[in-house]
Design a protein that fits this description.
- This protein has helices spanning about 15-20, 65-70, 85-95, 115-120, 135-145, 175-185, 250-265, 300-305, 310-320, 395-410; strands at about 5-10, 30, 60, 75-80, 130-135, 155, 165-170, 195-200, 205-215, 220-230, 235-245, 270-280, 285-290, 335-340, 345, 360-365, 375, 385-390, 415.
- The protein is of the alpha+beta class and about 425 residues long.
- The protein folds into three domains: about 5-100, Rossmann fold, CATH 3.40.50; about 130-200, ATP-grasp fold, A domain (Dna Ligase, domain 1, 2-Layer Sandwich); about 205-415, ATP-grasp fold, B domain (D-amino Acid Aminotransferase, Chain A, domain 1).
- Strands 11-10-9-12-13 form a five-stranded antiparallel beta sheet, sandwiched between helices. A four-stranded parallel beta sheet has the order 3-2-1-4.
- It is globular, with a radius of gyration of 21 Å.
Length: about 425
């Protein structure tokens, strides 16, 4: 029998992995990293939030016998389908497919945002000044020592995703409320307690996603995406839109070189990586990296923008042991627009969005919420109502962007009954 690929948490963009491997006659086995429940109990809504059982030979949960169960299948590779599965995928790969595994000793540095910055600093790369602590007194002392007492700060959990509980603190203002909130909360990603808080200086510039695929330590560019965010009160964590860009070596060569060094620093040698980076006047600074494909429907958007995506390259890396799709050929502007709920309540007239399909540049509409659903005010990636993708000539795309916002304003959200 053909060796199968093991996919840990094949949800979000990772839902596309099994069909892509199947196209190369490689079967797949799914592993849930969360024991005793389903993914939906942690990640209730969102793009491809449910495991598609028909895609897999078997579906296993994490447990003490998991390595032995999987060893009987003689897997070709172990791949993380989503951020929640990164650490388990690392452990399984080290045990089952060490020839195509990332550096085991740096597993935590690929998830923990404090250790991530430490790994970059050890490699001699410029970093964002960062403290990882559970002590408010230590924060006060560190801010004074780093001359950051009156600086803009960012506070966030050490190991979550999707802008979960990320707080932007204006210069000299109260950071302790956000600090205490994070420590008293659990992550959206895996419902784990936050044992520490990441405190960072806030860096300014233009934020990008640089998405790559690696084979034997060689990192190939798959997506270059510029972020555009807006605020939800004090939190600058709401995506307005993103834009796929052509790769100009003169303009972005330093950015890509820095990301390749950062991937080396955190021990990524095989598979996809999603790196978020701020290009500051002083040069690029890594915000964080995830050892998995970029989330949401981005793989499809990338194929329209460039003719390929991380997906094809991931399959090549593990099946062919090299990346054959090496060129980055920009074809047209693609802009995913994030639909924003200004208040929490009950969504009533999602059919208003149907008229967007008549826009000249309309590519696709992805809605994971419908009429009658309780929705939350959009404060981060995970609370967006959905995504509308536009594609075509850039000027026409941004003309249609305005129409998307006009139609979005027609959505009716009834406030929740306070007795519910």
């Amino acid at each position: 029998m053909t060796q199968p690929v093991v996919i840990v948490d094949p949800v979000d963009s990772g839902a596309e992995l099994a069909p892509a491997f199947a196209a190369r006659q490689i079967p797949a086995i799914a592993v849930r990293s969360i024991r005793g429940g389903t993914w939906d109990e942690v990640n209730e809504v969102g793009y491809a939030s449910k495991i598609q059982a028909s895609h897999f030979l078997e579906i296993y949960e994490d447990g003490p016998d998991l390595v032995d169960l999987l060893r009987d299948h003689d897997p070709l590779a172990v791949v993380a389908g989503a951020e929640s599965g990164v650490e388990l995928a690392d452990r399984l790969a080290a045990a089952l497919t060490p020839q195509v595994a990332n550096v085991p000793a740096l597993t935590r540095a690929r998830r923990h945002k404090g250790l991530m910055q430490e790994a970059l600093a050890k490699a001699g790369l410029p970093v964002i000044r960062t403290l990882n602590t559970a002590s408010a007194a230590e924060v006060t002392a560190w801010l004074a020592d780093q001359n950051l007492t009156d600086a803009a700060l960012i506070l966030k959990p050490a190991a979550s995703a999707g802008s979960d509980n990320v707080h932007h603190i204006p210069p000299g203002e109260d950071w302790k409320t956000a600090f205490d909130l994070i420590l008293s909360s659990r992550t959206k990603l895996r419902a784990e307690a936050n044992e520490t808080v990441i405190v960072q200086e806030q860096v300014f510039g233009t934020e990008f996603a640089v998405d790559t695929v690696s084979a034997a330590g060689e990192h190939v560019l798959a997506h270059l995406i510029r972020y555009n965010k807006t605020s939800a009160g004090e939190r600058m964590t709401v995506f307005d839109h993103t834009e796929f860009l052509p790769f100009d070596p003169e303009q972005y060569g330093e950015l890509l070189a820095y990301i390749r060094q950062a991937l080396d620093a955190v021990g990524i040698r095989w598979g996809a990586a999603h790196s978020e980076v701020m290009l500051t006047p002083q040069g690029p600074r890594l915000i964080e990296v995830g050892a998995r494909t970029c989330g949401g429907p981005v793989l499809g958007f990338s194929r329209v923008a460039t003719g390929s995506s991380q997906l094809e390259r991931v399959v090549e890396a593990y099946v062919d042991r090299e990346i054959r799709t090496r060129s980055y050929d920009f074809r047209q502007t693609v802009v995913p627009i994030f639909l924003i709920a200004p208040v929490s309540g009950i969504l009533r007239n999602v059919e208003q969005l149907d008229q967007l399909r008549q826009l000249p540049t309309h590519l696709s509409t992805h809605m994971w919420l419908g009429n009658g659903d309780h929705i939350l005010r959009t404060v981060d990636f995970d609370t967006a109502l959905g995504i509308v993708g536009l594609a075509g000539e850039r000027e026409a795309v941004f003309a249609d962007y305005q129409r998307v916002r006009e139609v979005e304003a027609l959505l009716r959200i009834d406030p929740l009954d306070p007795m519910e």
